[in-house]
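From the shared-data thread, chain only:
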Amino acid sequence: MENAVKALTMAGSVLIALVIIGAILLVFNNLNSYQKVSDQLKKDEKVLEFNNQFETYNRTDVRGSDLLSLINRVIDYNERQSSVGTEGQDLGYKPIVLTINLREAKKNMAPPITKDDTYKSLFENSYMISGTANDEKKMQEVLNRISEIQNEYTQTELSELTASASSIFIGKKTVDNEKETEKSVEKYNKIVKNQISNYSQIAPGTNIRKMIYNYYESIQFKRSYFDCVSENSKSSGVEYDTNGRIIKMNFVGNGKVE
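Structure, as tokens:
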């Protein structure tokens, strides 16, 4: 009888020990699962936070002025935080590929005087930003040119010069007419603080004329609208990596200008 009691006591102790061990393992597994879920939620939050910077442009009728902001944001991200950047190489995140096809928008971005054969358009038909220096160089040159113009003139001067461009920057047929060239110089000097002394300073091919034409184009770009769609315009223009992060955005000018 006494041996039976001892046996039952030992069995009970073993059972209790097993129950305790099982409970510990259960708690450990639950904690491990909770940690995995918590880690995944944090990853998802970071992906969502990242994508939110760009999802606001994932729509139709994106103004060119907003697109310029996106361009700067993508270039900054690619240069610093992506796998090709200075700070993000260890993270391994792919750079964003941003493609802009002007299409119909290009038609509305001609300079005020289109018969000036010496003028070279500021904007090309398309641009790609992909994290490589060659792709981003062209768009960076455009942004730098716009910044240069805005540093050279005040906003009021630029607005008045573009509004009066056809009468100030006269064409080749009238450049030999002294009275007409004098009027051009006079009109220009009435607008700007930095005066010029003769017409040769604003003749076809001069930097001043190019600046105003470039500025006019930049204004037309800012007023143009673009759709975030695929090249065939039949699907979304946004692509995601396997981890859910945005890696591609494609914009097409829709011809609308306001």
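DSSP finds seven helices and six strands in the chain.
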